[in-house]
Amino acid sequence: MPRDTHYIPPLTPPLPGAAGVMCPGVVAFAGSGPGDADLLTLKVLKALAKNPLVVSPILGACWAATGVPLPGALDKFLSLLGAATTPCALISLGLFLAHKQQGPRHGTSLLVLIKLIAHPLLTWFLAFKVFHLPPLWANSALLLSALPTGTGPFMLAEYYKRGASVVSSTILISTLGSLVTLSLCIYYING
């Protein structure tokens, strides 16, 4: 059964940027000494090679480039698995937010303002005024930029045990605030 893929190209430009933001190499190299570069490079590359957030899109892009369709059973399995990710992420996020987080919440307001106001404004300026993207691409970029803070920071805060209270507050407030920003973006797009 062929898939309707006309909406995929507008969603693909953020992928390299997301991979670049998630790369811990920049932070690691900033604190390393001159003799540590080779060992540190190897350590970072091993960590990236084991990270499913990096490996999965690369494997998917390589497979898609071949043009070979997935076998029926595998395609169905991956479709079901993909459909289950959002509910699972929302449940885990809800459990995380329900757990009382200890610690300071300084910086939450600034992070929410950057995410819900500065990010969509910058995206609008770049997509519509600088790059003059086609309407489908520009509108998709604008809507994606108006979304709330997602589960990525949540997973990293949990994994590294850093800033969980700020992250949980930011996720909660930006999710509520995105009702306004998404509504405004949709209103703008519909003209």
Describe the structure in your own words:
The protein is mainly α and 191 residues long. It has 2 domains: 69 residues; 120 residues, no CATH class. 76% of the residues lie in helices and 0% in strands. The protein is built from 10 helices and no strands. Helix 7 runs parallel beside helix 10 and helix 9 runs antiparallel to helix 10. It is globular, with a radius of gyration of 19 Å. 13% of the residues are buried. About 6% of the residues have low confidence.
Write the layout of secondary structure elements.
Elements: H1 8-11, H2 14-22, H3 25-30, H4 37-50, H5 52-66, H6 72-98, H7 108-130, H8 135-145, H9 151-160, H10 164-190
Helix pairs in contact: 7-8, 7-10, 9-10
Q: What's the overall geometry?
A: globular
Sheet with most strands = none
List the domain count as a whole number: 2
Helix content: over 70%
- Quaternary state, please? single chain
* Beta-strand content estimate: under 5%
Properties at a glance:
191 residues; single chain; 76% helix; 2 domains; mainly alpha
